[in-house]
């Protein structure tokens, strides 16, 4: 670690802080801007004084585990701030917000009172009480489902906050972000989001984006505390230059170390997070399904009204024509209440609040399983969107390759050494080895460590730098000996724009300033005019020699899939005595422009670094091609390296002539398409669009590899592909990849090598940085669509049959074949139980054998309509047979023991109807598990979902118990063994008929569209008929509205408290 010390103060010279609140006050924005915070740190003894009071050390950090624990106990831990999850009883009360259930409960109360008046207290209460119990069961099961789902999402959010960070505890160690304590010395670099509040104690070229916390878009320059204390700044300068690093802000440039002063909920970010609601907004699929639910709800409401009118018509006929009873009697009132309850219950059954529930369950189940398969989902919508992805723009390093770097080729002293030859030091002069190794050690920020037991390197930090440091170590040069505080004058970190890193050091022997540079070999070679030849002699580097090195070294290494890094240096001779000494030399070197500091270089060496291809990448890319997904590699490597690796991966086909634009460089691509210009979308908002889409379309049809690509090129490519109507997934690891990750339909960040900014911009984090994990996301994304389609197949069938039979029975029989209690049980089966059973289907590998879904595809496909219509026709036919013809063929007389009790004469017939109806839904759910047109066997993948069979078994057991023992409560009669078998036969017949219906050609169903599929905007979802009738289905949407209110509070706190 590099460290400059501020002037040491005696313990008596500084104040002591007494509580955490004093440290909190240091990070108030007004105090920082006015210089009050800085003066407070001075009074507390500066950076060293604070470190001492925190039992830490600026060089060694906290060097004992006991002290770490003491600081944790005293100042708190760094656990993520979470909103308090909803309690189970709160979710139960929330479900009682359902408008229809409230009306049903009131009606049930009136029915109970009338029943007690008519029949007495002994039996009159049963019907109303049973409805109360049924409603309570529905609410409890739904609330329990939501409770488990919320807990699962909470665990996933905790996983998102569980990153790794490097701190100094005796030496550089890597720990979880949650383990940071006050007093730690934390290392940071470009792209990092600060997880804690702290004081910068060392660093160079630090620029920070504080807009997430302060709202200001300007880049804020940061300097170490001791540098500011040695310079004179007016109070207004502290606004733009300060040593205070605020949690939640981003490091845009530079690297350094900070003393941690606040963790967890005491940080600025922690205080703000307490205001935020972390609920997820509705996904696009949920919005589209809300449109389907709206149309089904309208149909159900119409049928409910017509059913109520029909029953009222029969009542009026009985009163005024048949004169069976008077109008203003308790019996009439009871019939009106029963008809009203049936109408309300039809709405409860018809409005499919289970659709959003099914999506939620499918997402919760999928994200949990995806986490087990190395996909950490941040944005729930990305799961389902990935099912339609048809383009993947992938990084090379760490995604297609293993990100285990090793120098396998080295050009030095005008000679190439390969593999084991590199370690034979006798072939290379000590002078050349020395200057190369010194350059590697000084001009790097990675901190690899060697395991003492296995003697193997653990690569911590940039893997390319780790490979070079390991090379220097093999030559006997320890990097820790060269990163000394009295030698490093200036450091310009590597950036994707510059493609190089520069470090200036002071040579104490002759007081010269030496500039070390490393980076992309073509760029460094172009800036060199000498090179180190035999025995360390410097030789003039003319154009002929440059061309020789370019073709025989750089391109030769690149053709072997090696990343080439050039290492160079130059000495600045002191022009006067004025720059003698460390301070003067440092001031002098900082005055040199970045573009001028590394010109006229001497080339030392060119390293060829091997990053092996992941063993399963070739198979994964073949699978993508088979699945209709085009994989494009976008890399910063030169075109020969990129082409070689693409051939090895299978992105490019071997032994085939390349098309004109199949492999292209970023600059060429940018020049051809003309970059981005301002345009407008369908809503009239201004957006960036590709200037020349005609050329872009021609390139995109052929392009598979983009070499020497900048982040801007990647963003341009993604913008154009989306403009063409593609669904695009992008992988990225660097800070500058963030715009492309954000622009993509699904952004994948690397969990191991990815910067905090990339992870923040991404939708899914690949925990293992592996391309094959993207296939996993694609598989689960397609499976979510399949699960929802299976559920829709089932629910639409139940809906159509239940609505038709309720209306038919009311018109012809003067009663609904299913009473209110029975319909509530059916509602529980078709919504909560079915969503559990069908939305948790595991994916089949066959989902990857078909083309991805398109943005414009209908959720309910022609194949599904065939299944729905076929199953509905069969069930309606059977139920009409039971309702009107069954007594002609079997004995349906009321059992002797029920005669004289309050049972209708056709109770056995209605019980068979109820039993057959439910069992047909159980068997139909088996048929609905198959979406594939070609799979006619309904029992395919029979045992791959145990939860499905558990749910169906519970349904059948409860149904049989209701029939056999729930007589006076559910208004049914127990059935004989033969009658049970008959109902099972009717149910099983549905499976046989579903197989027969699959022989009907799909094209006959192309024009069937029972329901519109319009995506409803989030802000309009609470205005739909469905939402007004049944608040439960959209209850979660109110959290997004509360989030907007919380966001206003957040901004207010940002401006006032900060």
TrEMBL record:
<feature type="transmembrane region" description="Helical">
    <location>
        <begin position="299"/>
        <end position="321"/>
    </location>
</feature>
<dbReference type="GO" id="GO:0046872">
    <property type="term" value="F:metal ion binding"/>
</dbReference>
<dbReference type="GO" id="GO:0005388">
    <property type="term" value="F:P-type calcium transporter activity"/>
</dbReference>
<dbReference type="GO" id="GO:0012505">
    <property type="term" value="C:endomembrane system"/>
</dbReference>
<feature type="transmembrane region" description="Helical">
    <location>
        <begin position="824"/>
        <end position="842"/>
    </location>
</feature>
<keyword id="KW-0479">Metal-binding</keyword>
<keyword id="KW-1278">Translocase</keyword>
<dbReference type="InterPro" id="IPR018303">
    <property type="entry name" value="ATPase_P-typ_P_site"/>
</dbReference>
<dbReference type="Pfam" id="PF00122">
    <property type="entry name" value="E1-E2_ATPase"/>
</dbReference>
<keyword id="KW-0812">Transmembrane</keyword>
<dbReference type="InterPro" id="IPR059000">
    <property type="entry name" value="ATPase_P-type_domA"/>
</dbReference>
<dbReference type="Pfam" id="PF00690">
    <property type="entry name" value="Cation_ATPase_N"/>
</dbReference>
<dbReference type="InterPro" id="IPR001757">
    <property type="entry name" value="P_typ_ATPase"/>
</dbReference>
<keyword id="KW-0915">Sodium</keyword>
<feature type="compositionally biased region" description="Basic and acidic residues">
    <location>
        <begin position="1043"/>
        <end position="1058"/>
    </location>
</feature>
<feature type="transmembrane region" description="Helical">
    <location>
        <begin position="947"/>
        <end position="965"/>
    </location>
</feature>
<keyword id="KW-0406">Ion transport</keyword>
<dbReference type="InterPro" id="IPR006408">
    <property type="entry name" value="P-type_ATPase_IIB"/>
</dbReference>
<keyword id="KW-0547">Nucleotide-binding</keyword>
<dbReference type="InterPro" id="IPR004014">
    <property type="entry name" value="ATPase_P-typ_cation-transptr_N"/>
</dbReference>
<feature type="transmembrane region" description="Helical">
    <location>
        <begin position="977"/>
        <end position="997"/>
    </location>
</feature>
<dbReference type="Pfam" id="PF00689">
    <property type="entry name" value="Cation_ATPase_C"/>
</dbReference>
<keyword id="KW-0067">ATP-binding</keyword>
<keyword id="KW-1133">Transmembrane helix</keyword>
<dbReference type="GO" id="GO:0008554">
    <property type="term" value="F:P-type sodium transporter activity"/>
</dbReference>
<feature type="domain" description="Cation-transporting P-type ATPase N-terminal">
    <location>
        <begin position="43"/>
        <end position="116"/>
    </location>
</feature>
<dbReference type="InterPro" id="IPR006068">
    <property type="entry name" value="ATPase_P-typ_cation-transptr_C"/>
</dbReference>
<keyword id="KW-0472">Membrane</keyword>
<dbReference type="Pfam" id="PF13246">
    <property type="entry name" value="Cation_ATPase"/>
</dbReference>
<dbReference type="InterPro" id="IPR044492">
    <property type="entry name" value="P_typ_ATPase_HD_dom"/>
</dbReference>
<feature type="transmembrane region" description="Helical">
    <location>
        <begin position="791"/>
        <end position="812"/>
    </location>
</feature>
<comment type="similarity">
    <text>Belongs to the cation transport ATPase (P-type) (TC 3.A.3) family.</text>
</comment>
<feature type="transmembrane region" description="Helical">
    <location>
        <begin position="129"/>
        <end position="148"/>
    </location>
</feature>
<feature type="transmembrane region" description="Helical">
    <location>
        <begin position="341"/>
        <end position="365"/>
    </location>
</feature>
<protein>
    <recommendedName>
        <fullName>Calcium-transporting ATPase</fullName>
        <ecNumber>7.2.2.10</ecNumber>
    </recommendedName>
</protein>
<dbReference type="GO" id="GO:0016887">
    <property type="term" value="F:ATP hydrolysis activity"/>
</dbReference>
<feature type="transmembrane region" description="Helical">
    <location>
        <begin position="863"/>
        <end position="886"/>
    </location>
</feature>
<keyword id="KW-0109">Calcium transport</keyword>
<keyword id="KW-0460">Magnesium</keyword>
<dbReference type="GO" id="GO:0005524">
    <property type="term" value="F:ATP binding"/>
</dbReference>
<feature type="transmembrane region" description="Helical">
    <location>
        <begin position="906"/>
        <end position="926"/>
    </location>
</feature>
<keyword id="KW-0106">Calcium</keyword>
